[in-house]
Amino acid sequence: MAKKIITEQICEVETQTVVFQQYYASLGGFSHDLTRSSGRSAGYDNSIVSHYGDFYNSDGSLSTYDYGFSGSDIGSSYYVPSSNWDESTSPSSVSSAYQASQAASYY
């Protein structure tokens, strides 16, 4: 979806490059949050999630809907799920899953 938004909503290739690099860098941060190696827990902004249905028009094209918040609002409704992490077993099992996925991506 990010690729579609970047290529269809941003005209200049230079701007697409900057936006993609910022997006790509954030994925690395999210990966470290998932594995808890960053010291943070992975979460999401609940206000943004509530707009998922507004991303596309009825014909399947990307929407230009004004979501009603600015950059300074991002993170103000940050939610961290806690039911999927067990401090005694999750670090090891998540590390194993991460290593397996990294190994699989090299083939």
Q: What does it look like?
A:
This protein is mainly alpha-helical. Helix content is 47%, strand content 4%. The protein is built from four helices and two strands. It has helices at residues 2-9, 13-34, 46-49, 90-105; strands at 44-45, 78-79. The protein has a two-stranded antiparallel ribbon. Helix 1 (2-9) runs antiparallel to helix 2 (13-34). It is globular and about 45 Å long. The two termini are 24 Å apart.
Mean pLDDT: 84
Radius of gyration (CA) equals 17 Å
Q: What share of residues are in beta strands?
A: under 5%
Helix content: 40-55%
Structural class: mainly alpha
Query: What is the distance, rounded to the nearest whole angstrom, between the alpha carbons of the first and last residues?
Result: 24 Å
Alpha plus pi helix count? 4
What is the overall shape? globular
Give the helices and strands as they follow along the chain: HHEHEH
Poorly predicted ranges: none
How would you sum up the major sheet?
A: 2 strands, antiparallel
In spatial order, strands of the major sheet run: 1-2
Report the count of strand segments: 2
